[in-house]
Amino acid sequence: MKDVMVIGIAGGTGSGKTTITKRLVSRFKENVTVIHHDDYYKAHHYMTYEERAQLNYDHPDAFETELLVEALRALKAGRPIECPVYDYTIHDRSDKTVTIKPAKVIIVEGILIFQDKELCKEMDIKLFVDTDADVRILRRIVRDVRDRGRSLESVVDQYLTTVKPMHEQFVEPSKRNADIIIPEGGHNAVALDMVIERVRAHLERSK
Asked: What is the pLDDT of residue 13?
């Protein structure tokens, strides 16, 4: 498939990556398709729920990133993919898949996507969403308790033991691989307008 633009959107947990992704999808509709790095968490069917709950999900080794790279290359070549579906409530990959169709703009979204060199090579624009740590932890608490069936205690414990140290070790340093750093995430209208204009121009050229 010719004239495909791949946009990487990275940043810490709760930084506003999803907000920016949704705005782009809302603006450009069927011209945009999205792959989430989270759906490529490794499967751990052989473990108990308690064992899975203790795993470090914020380390690069938690992901099957090579499978994501293969999927992205297939989409760029114009082929649909069967994307795995991750179930946060059981800390494991589900037995379901979702068909993702190719489009002129592909968004790859995740906390650690700029940490992988092969994945970065496939991207045309790399956006890092940079949001204050206090704001990010509050957003994560609300999301995980409301949407993912977690207790407040488990969210805070996970943040302090793995999320925060892994952010400092892997996510924050990966910011240097970004083309554009967006402060305040999805609330940064100037940065968002700039990205929207870049995508619009790409779609005009590829008509």
From this structure: 82
Residue indicated by tokens 């114009």: 78
Question: How confident is residue 12, by pLDDT bands cut at 50, 70 and 90?
Answer: confident
Cβ contact 145:47 at 8 Å: no
> pLDDT, tens digit, for every residue of 56-113?
888 999 999 999 999 999 999 999 999 999 998 888 999 999 999 999 999 999 999 9
Render 113-156 in DSSP notation, one character per residue: GGG-HHHHHT-SEEEEEE--HHHHHHHHHHHHHHHS---HHHHH
Q: 19: which 2 tokens? A: 């907000």
If one counts every other C-beta atom within 10 angstroms of the C-beta of residue 8, the result is: 26
Token digits of residue 38: 């989270």
Can you tell me whether residue 108 is helix, strand or coil? Answer: strand
Residue 104 is classified by DSSP as S
Domain of residue 85 covers 5-205
CATH of the domain at 131: 3.40.50.300
pLDDT at 2 over 70: no
Q: Are 185 and 136 in contact (CB under 8 A)?
A: no
- What total of structural domains would you count in the chain? 1
